DNA sequence: AGGTATACGTACCGATCGGTAACATTGTCA
DNA sequence: TGACAATGTTACCGATCGGTACGTATACCT
């Protein structure tokens, strides 16, 4: 007897290699659960239950829970740089305005109810052991962030570009953490303004 | 860097109720394990094993694992403010120097091998749900930190004291996180310098 | 239609999770 | 010596953990 299935939501065009539908549902649910409540806090049983699939389906698409977590972070990484590039593209040739746009957006996100910080940062805290699949993705994301911020500090003409780039990174990470610690009205809402003050103080005179 | 176990720390005089020795051993071991590897990652079995005690002993001194975690954080909180007050006491009447001393110390700690960030911050990331015993202690610690930093920003004569205080908090939290993410040579080593730049840019002219 | 590869479900595994019951042993101080 | 509190011992609980063996349904391609 045909139970009422969920709404068909095939995004892929007809010609691409048809990926298992279950894998996408699983990853979508895992993304949401891992981000909101933490990776260690979520068991695979809850994921498959909420996704409307069964456990063997999960393990056919993902070798392990750790690798599923890494997949979640890889998708997070992709969306992260999309947001970053949007801020960059909005102000061509003006790195200071690019930073300001990116941080203003972060500041706004941190003021949303139930804000849970950066999935990358959180994963690194949850998995301190080097070499863990989730941590590897997280570390790569952060190193790339540092590289970009330092490059933008150079482009801004800072006296000490590496220090300014690192200072911006500290402010950003601080915003991610304090956003989920303080909620509305917390320190994270000042990240763009503080960054601008720091930039101003770091430019060549 | 946590436990300094040599120092005898009997607070009670001879008449007070003699505290169980097992409780101290358990808390010491839990402190070390929770801090280094995370609270969720450590089971009570490993704690009692490393402490050389048995599980019933743990549950005679602590109502639950969550409360043991909260006890760990309460001790962390105590030691945290001791370090803070040391930096303050070293520069009486000079809040800017106090901040600099505190952040220089943080910057140094972040460059130690196996640095694991702030136990408070990590606990808040591990337990996002409001009302969790561990999170309650963590949030109280962070609110107190914000209060002190803002008060010091006032004492420094900042144009916008709340913004500067919050900016310093962002830098500090960023140092805690990036310290454990990047290890040696990471952005956290610049926290004192960046804070000083931010302070300079925030003072009344 | 028929075969075949692929996706999926049922049922189960051993290990570990946090936590407890009941009782034996110890150390301390009056 | 007696009494009492603290600790140890052993065995156990139900729940959940991540992961899998194996049979069944479905889609596609001649």
TrEMBL record, chains A, B:
Q: Which residues form the HTH tetR-type domain?
A: 20-80
Q: Kindly indicate which segments of the sequence are annotated as binding DNA.
A: 43-62
Q: Does the keyword Transcription regulation apply?
A: yes
Instruction: Show the GO MF annotations.
Output: DNA binding
Coiled coil: which residue ranges?
none
Q: Name one Pfam family in it.
A: TetR_N
Q: Which UniProt keywords apply?
A: DNA-binding, Transcription, Transcription regulation
- UniProt key word Transcription: yes
PANTHER family in UniProt? HTH-TYPE TRANSCRIPTIONAL REGULATOR YJDC, TRANSCRIPTIONAL REGULATORY PROTEIN
- Tell me what this protein is called: TetR family transcriptional regulator
Q: Which organism is it from?
A: Mesorhizobium kowhaii
Lineage in the entry? Bacteria, Pseudomonadati, Pseudomonadota, Alphaproteobacteria, Hyphomicrobiales
